[in-house]
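# nightly structure sweep
# worker-07 picked up a monomer target from the shared queue
# config: single-sequence mode, recycle default, output format = structure tokens
# input follows
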Amino acid sequence: DSSNAKILEDAAELLIDTAIKVYDKGVSYNRLLFLIPDEELEVELQRYDFMGLLKEKMKAAEVFPTVNSKYVSYDENLKFYKSGLAKYLSGREFPDLLMYSDYKEVDELLKEFSYSTYTYTEIAAKVKRWVSSRKVTDENIRKIAYTAIQFINEFGDTWQFDTYEEQRPSFFFNVDRKL
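# output follows
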């Protein structure tokens, strides 16, 4: 049994090393998707809890993509939004924000890992600083507009959105392209 456990531990590490080497160009969820099985594991692998072992090894590996195009290992400080809020955000304000995912397998895995989100006041302050630090270009105005839509989708019907109105980020420009 101990030799089987060692073989499975080595297999999990090999899978992770392979994912990192195969997907070494660009940053995306491909490393994680490579590690999530498409179908249920064989009974023997289930008996040795291979998925549990693999998930623990995954947490320690740099396979989680952030909005700043970096891979990080998983810890309780990572933030994730199932909504599109993270689609356009990046920069020093968001070192621990995972990229947006439209993969249900990734969403389910992160839910299992108990991902967290910023508090409303944290995200509002971060988005406010992010918006005000953007140079006024058509591309950035577009990103800000889409972020505004996602922010409202995420928080528009929450009590925080109404209660903390003064903390709400300003997403709008005047005719002189000033916030």
